[in-house]
Write a structure and sequence with these properties.
The chain is of the alpha/beta class and 314 residues long. It has two domains: 196 residues, NAD(P)-binding Rossmann-like Domain (Rossmann fold), CATH 3.40.50; 92 residues, UDP-galactose 4-epimerase, domain 1, CATH 3.90.25.10. It has twelve helices and 13 strands. The strands form three sheets. Strands 1, 2, 3, 4, 5, 6, 7 and 11 form an eight-stranded parallel beta sheet that branches. The chain has a three-stranded mixed beta sheet with strand order 8-10-12. The longest helix is centred in the N-terminal third of the chain and has 21 residues. The protein is globular and about 55 Å long. It starts with a strand and ends with a helix. The protein binds serine. It comes from Candidatus Heimdallarchaeum endolithica. GO terms for molecular function: L-threonine 3-dehydrogenase activity.
Protein backbone atom coordinates (compact mmCIF):
# COMPACT_ATOMS: atom_id res chain seq x y z
CA UNK A 1 0.00 0.00 0.00
CA UNK A 2 1.21 3.48 -0.81
CA UNK A 3 2.51 5.47 2.12
CA UNK A 4 3.33 9.15 2.21
CA UNK A 5 6.47 9.78 4.24
CA UNK A 6 8.17 12.96 5.48
CA UNK A 7 11.78 12.74 6.66
CA UNK A 8 13.31 15.38 8.96
CA UNK A 9 17.08 15.83 9.10
CA UNK A 10 17.15 14.32 5.64
CA UNK A 11 20.10 16.36 4.39
CA UNK A 12 22.38 14.41 6.75
CA UNK A 13 24.52 11.33 6.14
CA UNK A 14 21.67 8.82 6.51
CA UNK A 15 18.84 10.96 5.12
CA UNK A 16 20.49 11.59 1.78
CA UNK A 17 20.62 7.82 1.18
CA UNK A 18 17.35 6.97 2.90
CA UNK A 19 15.25 9.44 0.89
CA UNK A 20 16.17 8.02 -2.56
CA UNK A 21 15.66 4.48 -1.19
CA UNK A 22 12.17 5.45 0.06
CA UNK A 23 11.43 7.07 -3.32
CA UNK A 24 12.32 3.81 -5.08
CA UNK A 25 10.11 1.82 -2.74
CA UNK A 26 7.05 4.04 -2.25
CA UNK A 27 7.11 6.25 -5.35
CA UNK A 28 8.90 9.54 -5.83
CA UNK A 29 5.76 11.64 -5.34
CA UNK A 30 5.15 10.17 -1.87
CA UNK A 31 8.40 11.21 -0.18
CA UNK A 32 9.10 14.66 1.25
CA UNK A 33 12.64 15.47 2.39
CA UNK A 34 13.19 18.23 4.92
CA UNK A 35 16.25 19.75 6.52
CA UNK A 36 17.84 22.92 7.73
CA UNK A 37 21.25 23.09 6.11
CA UNK A 38 22.85 22.61 2.69
CA UNK A 39 20.75 20.59 0.25
CA UNK A 40 22.69 17.48 -0.86
CA UNK A 41 23.55 17.48 -4.58
CA UNK A 42 22.00 14.02 -4.96
CA UNK A 43 18.59 15.55 -4.14
CA UNK A 44 18.89 17.91 -7.09
CA UNK A 45 20.08 15.09 -9.37
CA UNK A 46 17.17 12.87 -8.34
CA UNK A 47 14.60 15.66 -8.35
CA UNK A 48 13.66 15.08 -4.69
CA UNK A 49 10.77 17.09 -3.18
CA UNK A 50 12.47 19.02 -0.40
CA UNK A 51 11.47 21.81 1.99
CA UNK A 52 13.35 23.73 4.61
CA UNK A 53 12.25 22.72 8.10
CA UNK A 54 13.66 23.64 11.49
CA UNK A 55 12.27 20.89 13.73
CA UNK A 56 12.04 23.34 16.64
CA UNK A 57 9.14 25.00 14.82
CA UNK A 58 6.03 22.91 15.54
CA UNK A 59 3.71 25.04 13.42
CA UNK A 60 5.94 24.70 10.38
CA UNK A 61 6.27 20.96 10.97
CA UNK A 62 2.51 20.49 11.26
CA UNK A 63 1.86 22.60 8.19
CA UNK A 64 4.15 20.43 6.05
CA UNK A 65 2.65 17.22 7.46
CA UNK A 66 -0.90 18.40 6.68
CA UNK A 67 -0.16 19.95 3.30
CA UNK A 68 1.59 16.82 2.09
CA UNK A 69 -0.95 14.45 3.60
CA UNK A 70 1.74 12.47 5.46
CA UNK A 71 1.17 9.00 6.94
CA UNK A 72 4.61 8.27 8.41
CA UNK A 73 7.06 10.71 9.98
CA UNK A 74 10.71 9.69 10.04
CA UNK A 75 12.41 12.03 12.48
CA UNK A 76 16.15 11.90 11.80
CA UNK A 77 17.08 15.48 12.76
CA UNK A 78 19.68 15.42 15.52
CA UNK A 79 22.91 17.01 16.70
CA UNK A 80 25.35 14.08 17.01
CA UNK A 81 27.63 13.13 19.89
CA UNK A 82 30.81 15.11 19.22
CA UNK A 83 29.04 18.28 18.03
CA UNK A 84 26.68 17.95 20.99
CA UNK A 85 29.54 17.99 23.51
CA UNK A 86 30.82 21.19 21.89
CA UNK A 87 27.38 22.83 22.10
CA UNK A 88 25.07 21.07 24.58
CA UNK A 89 22.52 23.90 24.45
CA UNK A 90 22.09 23.57 20.69
CA UNK A 91 21.88 19.77 21.06
CA UNK A 92 19.24 20.19 23.74
CA UNK A 93 17.04 22.44 21.65
CA UNK A 94 17.26 20.41 18.44
CA UNK A 95 17.24 16.93 19.94
CA UNK A 96 14.73 17.37 22.75
CA UNK A 97 12.39 20.09 21.41
CA UNK A 98 12.62 18.66 17.90
CA UNK A 99 11.60 15.18 19.00
CA UNK A 100 8.85 16.50 21.28
CA UNK A 101 7.43 18.39 18.30
CA UNK A 102 7.59 15.26 16.15
CA UNK A 103 5.79 13.30 18.85
CA UNK A 104 3.11 15.93 19.41
CA UNK A 105 2.57 16.46 15.67
CA UNK A 106 2.16 12.69 15.22
CA UNK A 107 -0.35 12.56 18.07
CA UNK A 108 -2.35 15.66 17.13
CA UNK A 109 -2.54 14.81 13.43
CA UNK A 110 -3.14 11.15 14.18
CA UNK A 111 -0.35 10.00 11.83
CA UNK A 112 0.05 6.30 11.25
CA UNK A 113 3.60 5.97 12.55
CA UNK A 114 6.57 7.84 13.99
CA UNK A 115 10.05 6.42 13.45
CA UNK A 116 12.92 8.13 15.28
CA UNK A 117 16.41 6.65 15.57
CA UNK A 118 18.08 6.00 18.88
CA UNK A 119 21.77 5.08 19.05
CA UNK A 120 24.43 3.07 20.84
CA UNK A 121 24.94 6.44 22.54
CA UNK A 122 21.86 5.65 24.67
CA UNK A 123 24.17 3.38 26.68
CA UNK A 124 26.67 4.64 29.22
CA UNK A 125 29.62 3.67 31.40
CA UNK A 126 27.44 1.56 33.73
CA UNK A 127 26.06 -0.53 30.81
CA UNK A 128 27.78 -3.91 30.26
CA UNK A 129 30.23 -3.22 27.37
CA UNK A 130 30.31 -6.56 25.59
CA UNK A 131 27.34 -8.04 23.79
CA UNK A 132 25.08 -5.43 25.39
CA UNK A 133 21.49 -6.77 25.53
CA UNK A 134 18.42 -4.89 24.28
CA UNK A 135 16.91 -4.43 27.73
CA UNK A 136 19.67 -3.09 29.94
CA UNK A 137 20.66 -0.07 32.01
CA UNK A 138 20.80 3.14 29.93
CA UNK A 139 22.53 5.99 31.78
CA UNK A 140 24.48 7.86 29.10
CA UNK A 141 26.94 10.67 29.85
CA UNK A 142 26.63 12.73 26.64
CA UNK A 143 23.85 15.20 25.84
CA UNK A 144 23.27 13.28 22.59
CA UNK A 145 22.90 9.99 24.49
CA UNK A 146 20.54 11.57 27.02
CA UNK A 147 18.39 12.84 24.14
CA UNK A 148 18.25 9.31 22.70
CA UNK A 149 17.03 7.89 26.03
CA UNK A 150 14.43 10.69 26.05
CA UNK A 151 13.31 9.66 22.55
CA UNK A 152 12.98 6.01 23.57
CA UNK A 153 11.14 6.71 26.83
CA UNK A 154 8.82 9.40 25.48
CA UNK A 155 8.07 7.34 22.37
CA UNK A 156 7.22 4.34 24.52
CA UNK A 157 5.14 6.53 26.84
CA UNK A 158 3.08 7.93 23.94
CA UNK A 159 2.70 4.39 22.64
CA UNK A 160 1.16 3.13 25.85
CA UNK A 161 -0.75 6.31 26.66
CA UNK A 162 -2.12 7.22 23.22
CA UNK A 163 -1.53 4.09 21.16
CA UNK A 164 0.91 6.05 18.98
CA UNK A 165 2.89 3.68 16.73
CA UNK A 166 6.40 4.71 17.73
CA UNK A 167 9.37 2.66 16.49
CA UNK A 168 13.10 3.15 17.03
CA UNK A 169 16.44 1.58 16.17
CA UNK A 170 19.59 2.00 18.21
CA UNK A 171 21.83 2.61 15.22
CA UNK A 172 25.49 1.74 15.68
CA UNK A 173 28.11 3.80 13.81
CA UNK A 174 26.89 3.99 10.21
CA UNK A 175 29.60 3.78 7.54
CA UNK A 176 29.14 5.22 4.04
CA UNK A 177 30.94 7.57 1.64
CA UNK A 178 28.58 10.46 2.54
CA UNK A 179 29.93 13.13 4.87
CA UNK A 180 29.12 12.27 8.50
CA UNK A 181 27.54 14.84 10.78
CA UNK A 182 29.89 15.23 13.75
CA UNK A 183 29.84 11.91 15.58
CA UNK A 184 32.33 9.75 17.44
CA UNK A 185 32.17 7.01 14.82
CA UNK A 186 33.10 9.38 11.95
CA UNK A 187 36.68 8.03 11.89
CA UNK A 188 35.37 4.89 10.12
CA UNK A 189 34.41 7.11 7.15
CA UNK A 190 37.34 9.52 7.06
CA UNK A 191 39.86 6.66 7.19
CA UNK A 192 38.71 5.57 3.71
CA UNK A 193 38.67 9.08 2.25
CA UNK A 194 42.12 9.90 3.65
CA UNK A 195 43.58 6.53 2.60
CA UNK A 196 42.49 7.16 -0.97
CA UNK A 197 43.35 10.87 -1.03
CA UNK A 198 46.58 11.03 1.02
CA UNK A 199 47.56 7.43 1.82
CA UNK A 200 47.60 8.29 5.51
CA UNK A 201 45.11 9.00 8.29
CA UNK A 202 45.40 10.39 11.81
CA UNK A 203 42.72 8.80 13.93
CA UNK A 204 41.05 10.60 16.85
CA UNK A 205 40.41 7.32 18.69
CA UNK A 206 42.97 4.84 20.09
CA UNK A 207 43.76 1.89 17.86
CA UNK A 208 41.89 -0.72 19.87
CA UNK A 209 38.67 1.22 20.58
CA UNK A 210 35.98 -1.12 19.30
CA UNK A 211 32.49 0.15 18.55
CA UNK A 212 29.43 -1.50 16.95
CA UNK A 213 28.99 -0.48 13.29
CA UNK A 214 27.04 -1.21 10.11
CA UNK A 215 27.33 -0.34 6.43
CA UNK A 216 24.77 2.12 5.03
CA UNK A 217 22.79 -0.42 2.92
CA UNK A 218 22.14 -2.37 6.14
CA UNK A 219 21.10 0.82 7.94
CA UNK A 220 18.56 1.55 5.19
CA UNK A 221 17.37 -2.06 5.17
CA UNK A 222 16.89 -2.13 8.96
CA UNK A 223 14.95 1.14 8.85
CA UNK A 224 12.56 0.08 6.08
CA UNK A 225 12.15 -3.41 7.58
CA UNK A 226 11.20 -1.99 10.98
CA UNK A 227 8.82 0.58 9.49
CA UNK A 228 7.08 -2.22 7.59
CA UNK A 229 7.18 -4.78 10.42
CA UNK A 230 3.91 -6.27 11.60
CA UNK A 231 2.94 -4.18 14.63
CA UNK A 232 1.28 -7.13 16.36
CA UNK A 233 4.63 -8.98 16.43
CA UNK A 234 6.53 -6.14 18.12
CA UNK A 235 7.01 -6.58 21.85
CA UNK A 236 9.57 -3.78 21.98
CA UNK A 237 9.54 -0.28 20.42
CA UNK A 238 13.34 0.32 20.52
CA UNK A 239 15.80 -2.23 19.12
CA UNK A 240 19.55 -2.83 19.13
CA UNK A 241 20.85 -3.38 15.58
CA UNK A 242 24.42 -4.09 14.52
CA UNK A 243 26.45 -5.77 11.80
CA UNK A 244 30.00 -5.96 13.24
CA UNK A 245 32.31 -4.32 15.76
CA UNK A 246 35.24 -2.33 14.50
CA UNK A 247 38.35 -0.73 16.04
CA UNK A 248 40.64 1.53 13.97
CA UNK A 249 43.38 -1.14 13.88
CA UNK A 250 40.96 -3.63 12.28
CA UNK A 251 40.81 -1.58 9.07
CA UNK A 252 44.54 -1.07 8.61
CA UNK A 253 45.20 -4.54 7.12
CA UNK A 254 42.21 -4.51 4.75
CA UNK A 255 43.04 -0.98 3.52
CA UNK A 256 46.74 -1.84 3.06
CA UNK A 257 45.74 -4.73 0.81
CA UNK A 258 44.32 -2.18 -1.61
CA UNK A 259 46.73 0.69 -0.81
CA UNK A 260 50.07 -0.83 0.40
CA UNK A 261 51.59 2.58 1.30
CA UNK A 262 48.73 3.40 3.70
CA UNK A 263 49.84 4.60 7.13
CA UNK A 264 47.85 5.40 10.25
CA UNK A 265 48.67 7.49 13.33
CA UNK A 266 46.64 7.86 16.53
CA UNK A 267 45.95 11.15 18.29
CA UNK A 268 43.01 10.51 20.60
CA UNK A 269 40.99 13.61 21.54
CA UNK A 270 37.79 14.27 23.57
CA UNK A 271 35.93 11.72 21.44
CA UNK A 272 37.96 8.90 23.04
CA UNK A 273 36.09 9.39 26.32
CA UNK A 274 32.74 9.33 24.50
CA UNK A 275 33.68 6.09 22.71
CA UNK A 276 34.76 4.48 25.98
CA UNK A 277 31.34 5.18 27.49
CA UNK A 278 29.63 3.14 24.73
CA UNK A 279 29.48 -0.63 24.23
CA UNK A 280 32.17 -2.41 22.21
CA UNK A 281 29.58 -4.86 20.86
CA UNK A 282 25.81 -5.19 21.11
CA UNK A 283 23.36 -8.08 21.00
CA UNK A 284 20.61 -7.56 18.41
CA UNK A 285 18.81 -10.88 18.91
CA UNK A 286 15.55 -9.13 19.91
CA UNK A 287 15.41 -7.38 16.50
CA UNK A 288 16.25 -10.67 14.77
CA UNK A 289 13.44 -12.43 16.61
CA UNK A 290 10.68 -9.80 16.45
CA UNK A 291 11.05 -8.57 12.84
CA UNK A 292 13.67 -10.75 11.19
CA UNK A 293 16.66 -8.39 11.22
CA UNK A 294 19.81 -9.72 9.53
CA UNK A 295 22.68 -7.64 8.10
CA UNK A 296 24.12 -8.29 4.63
CA UNK A 297 27.56 -6.67 4.92
CA UNK A 298 30.58 -7.85 6.94
CA UNK A 299 33.85 -5.91 7.27
CA UNK A 300 35.50 -7.21 4.04
CA UNK A 301 32.38 -6.57 1.92
CA UNK A 302 31.96 -3.07 3.40
CA UNK A 303 35.66 -2.24 2.89
CA UNK A 304 35.64 -3.34 -0.74
CA UNK A 305 32.51 -1.35 -1.54
CA UNK A 306 33.68 1.80 0.31
CA UNK A 307 37.02 1.82 -1.55
CA UNK A 308 35.31 1.31 -4.90
CA UNK A 309 32.67 3.99 -4.32
CA UNK A 310 35.05 6.64 -2.93
CA UNK A 311 37.59 5.98 -5.73
CA UNK A 312 34.90 7.00 -8.20
CA UNK A 313 34.09 10.16 -6.23
CA UNK A 314 37.64 11.52 -5.97
N1 LIG B 1 27.34 7.96 14.89
C1 LIG B 1 26.79 8.54 16.08
C2 LIG B 1 27.78 9.38 16.77
O1 LIG B 1 28.93 9.01 16.75
C3 LIG B 1 26.34 7.45 17.01
O2 LIG B 1 24.97 7.42 17.05
O3 LIG B 1 27.43 10.35 17.36
Amino acid sequence: MTKRILVTGSYGQIGQVLVPALMDRYGKENIIATGRKKIPSVFKEKDVHYHRLDVRDLTQMQTLLVEHDIDILIHNASVLSATGEKNPQLAHSINFEGFYNALEATRMLNLEQLFAPSSIAAFGPSTPRENTPNDVITRPTTIYGISKVYIELMGEYYHQKYGLDFRSLRYPGVISPEEPGGGTTDWAIWIFWEALRNKKYTCFLKEDTSLPMMYMPDCIKSTIDLIEADNSKLEHRSFNVTAFSLAPKDLVGPIKEAIPEFEIAYEPDFRQQIAESWPASIDDSVARKEWGWKPDYDIPAMTKDMLEKISKMI
